[in-house]
């Protein structure tokens, strides 16, 4: 090979390996029941398998959404031009969902965040209609990024569905934000994935929610940040986390007095 061909081959190889190093979801376990995750190669199957995860044909490169796209819900909500999954997984309020990635590069350090958006029918939901409340977040603590914990836990993140939210269908938005280049303008990399669930046995709460195109801005302290200088002061972006615990006691007392109970005291 000529030296220029060798250079091209080396460049293509480097690009391919950096791309293949990114992951997509490998498996989703809802309340102990395993579900098939979406694979971008499904677009070559006819018919494509129907799964609970949203489809993203644009995700063949396992790539990311960048800060310049934060104002576009069709990109930042559930990844580029993603469309609703055809199935819905049933989950009891208060139970856990394990989300496993195929792989995650050690260098791609950053927070892991989870949100829910209430919908009438998850299988026909549109990214531009989704209103999210945050149910889980982890950034940097005890000298570890959330991504380090995810890798150490077999590429798996576990999220608990709040015990008191209203029954019905939701879109769960699970997201990793990789910050290895976030010191530069437009350098953060968002990897959002959406999953359809139907919550049963919940309460009556409808937390305040935010449209996908209002979750982040390019200059947020947790988005435009040099993680190599001050990781310990890292501030996770997006709205505050909704947590059932603060309201649970009041609701328990009320239900005890008025006998409207559906609360399980052992959850305390
Ligand atoms: C990690 O996940 C894979 C499935 O993707 C499973 O086969 C393996 O047993 C898991 N390893 C551990 C240590 O749990
Ligand atoms: Cu990368």
Describe this structure in words.
The chain has one domain: Distorted Sandwich (Coagulation Factor XIII, Chain A, domain 1). It is 16% helix and 26% strand. It has helices spanning 3-20, 73-76, 146-152, 245-258; strands at residues 25-30, 33-36, 89-92, 96-101, 112-119, 131-138, 140-141, 144-145, 156-160, 168-178, 189-200, 210-211. A six-stranded mixed beta sheet has the order 3-11-10-5-6-12, with no helix packed on it. Strands 2-1-4-9 form a four-stranded antiparallel beta sheet. The protein binds 2-acetamido-2-deoxy-beta-D-glucopyranose and copper (II) ion. 2-acetamido-2-deoxy-beta-D-glucopyranose is lined by residues 26-27, 100, 154.
Provide a compact summary of the structure:
Its cofactor is Cu(2+). With 268 residues, this protein is α+β, with helices and mostly antiparallel strands.
Low-confidence stretches: 1-20, 259-268
Average per-residue pLDDT, rounded, comes to 89
- Under CATH, the topology is which? Coagulation Factor XIII, Chain A, domain 1
How does the major sheet shape up? 6 strands, mixed
* Spatial strand sequence of the major β-sheet: 3-11-10-5-6-12
SS content category = alpha+beta
Name the shape in a single word.
globular
User: Span from first to last CA?
Assistant: 69 Å
Which CATH C-level class is it? Answer: Mainly Beta
Percent strand equals 25-35%
Signal peptide: 1-21
GO molecular function, one term: metal ion binding
Protein name: AA9 family lytic polysaccharide monooxygenase
EC number: 1.14.99.56
